[in-house]
Amino acid sequence: MNIVVIIPTYNEVENIGRMLDALVGEEFPKIKKHLMKVLVVDDNSPDGTAKVVQQKMKKYKQIELLLGKKNGLGAAFARGMKYAMDKMEADAVIEMDADFQHDPQDVKRLVQGFDDGYDYVIGSRYIKGGSIPEQWEFYRKFISWGGNFFARAALMIIKIHDVTSGFKLTRVKGLLDQIDLDNLLSRSYAYKIHILYEVIKERNAKVLEVPIKFHFREKGSSKIEKEDLKESFTVVIKLFLRSRFFKFAIIGFVGFLINSVFLEIFSSLSIFDKFSSSFSYLKGTKFHAVGESTAWAAAAATEMAIISNFIFNNSWTFAKEKITSPIKLAWKFLQFNLTSIGAIVIQFIVIGSAVGVFGDTTLVRQTALVGAVVFLIIPYNYTMYNVIIWKRWRIPGLGWIQDVSVYDNIKNKRR
Ligand code: GDD
Ligand code: MN
C-alpha cells in the first residue's frame, strides 16, 4: 500500500531538513509492508523552507513538494490530500507537523493501526500514555484541554478522547475519498474538527486512538492565532447545528407545539365526547379519566406529536437510515409508539415521586416535568431512536458490533 505523510510547512527552515532525514532516512526503512512517501505542502515560505526540501528530494526519491499560496493550514492540507489521492495513489494519508512536536518515531505506530484494520488512527494526547508539553504554561494547557473538552461535548463525541490532535492516519478508500475537501468549514486549524466530525459522525469508520507524547516546540514558532481559536469555536457550533442531535431537538420541540395545539383543537371536538361517553359508567370510580373526553383528546394530541416526530426524524434526522418500505414503516411506527410509552412511564414515576416528596404544587410539578424531560426523556428518546428504531448505534452485548470503536491503550487492546 502507498502511505503518504503530508507535512504542511510555513517557515520551518530550521525543522524540515531534520524532519525529512528522520522520516525518510530513519523511520521509513522500519516500515517494510508499505511504500512510504512524504508530501511537503509549503506555502512559499519566505524563509526558504522549499529549498531545503528540494535538496532532500535529490537525496531521497520518496519526497514530493507541493507549492502554493498561503491560505491557512486547512487549505494546505486539503490541497495536499487531494494531490496524494490523485497523483500519488495514496491508500492512506498521515497528517503530521514539521516542528517535531509530533515524533517521527510514532509514524510506524499509526501505520500499525492501519495494518490492524483501522480506518482512522488518531495520535492521542489525552489517553493513558499520551501527554502535552510539560513546559506549557497553565493557560496554554487549559486552552488545549478546554477546547478539546468543549468540542467533544458539543459534538457528542465522547468516545474519542483527543478530537483536536494534528497527528493522524486516514484511510483513503471509502473514507477520505468520500469527504468533500473543497467545502470544509475552515481553511485554518479547525478543518481538523470538521474532518473528524465527518469521519466519526457521518461514516462508519473504525477508529483507533494511539497514545502520543506531544513534544515542546524547540525551533521556530507556532502559527496558531487568537482568530483560529475563535474560528474553531464557530466551527464547532456550526457542526452542532448540522448534527443529528440538534435536528432531533428541533423536531422534539415542534412535536411539543403540535401536542399543545392539537390538545386545544381536539378538546373542542364533539367526537371525543361521543367516545368518552361510552365509558361514562366509570365516572366516580378510580378510572374516571377514561370517561373524560379531554383525556381522550390529550391522548390523540400526543399521538399527533408522535406521528410528527416519527415522520420528521425519519426523513431528516435519520435521512441516511430512512425507512421507506411500507411494511417496515408500519412495523417501525409501531415500535416507535411502544418506545414512546417509556416517556410516559418516566413522567409518571418522576412527577409522581416529586409530588409525593415535595407536595403537589405547580412549582413542583413543572420543575419535575422540566427535569424529567431534560435529563431523562430527551436522552431516553434519542437513545431509543438510535439503538432501536433507526439502528445507528450498535450496543455491544445487545448482539450488535460497535460501529465506532475506541481502542485506546498502549497495547492497542480492545476495550
Ligand atoms: N502550508 C502551510 N500553510 N503550513 C502551515 C500553515 C499554513 O498556513 N500554518 C501552519 N502550518 C504548518 C506549520 O509549519 C507546522 O508544520 C504545522 O503546520 C503545525 O503548525 P503549528 O503552528 O506548529 O501548529 P500548533 O503546534 O500550534 O498546533 C498543532 O497542534 C494542534 C493541537 O494542539 C497542530 O497540529 C494543530 O493542527 C493541532 O490542532
Ligand atoms: Mn506546532
Automatic annotation (TrEMBL):
Residue ranges annotated for the Glycosyltransferase 2-like domain, each copy included = 5-174
Annotated ranges, domain GtrA/DPMS transmembrane: 247-390
Report any one BP term from Gene Ontology. Answer: polysaccharide biosynthetic process
Compartments annotated for it: namely: Membrane
Q: How does it sit in the membrane?
A: Multi-pass membrane protein
Q: What is this protein called?
A: Glycosyltransferase 2-like domain-containing protein
Chief localization? membrane
Annotated Gene Ontology cellular component terms: membrane
Q: Name one GO molecular function term.
A: dolichyl-phosphate beta-D-mannosyltransferase activity
Q: Where is the signal peptide?
A: none
What are the transmembrane regions? 248-273, 293-312, 333-357, 363-382
The protein's UniProt keywords, in alphabetical order, are: Glycosyltransferase, Membrane, Transferase, Transmembrane, Transmembrane helix
Name the family.
Belongs to the glycosyltransferase 2 family.
| Family matches, as Pfam families | Glycos_transf_2, GtrA_DPMS_TM
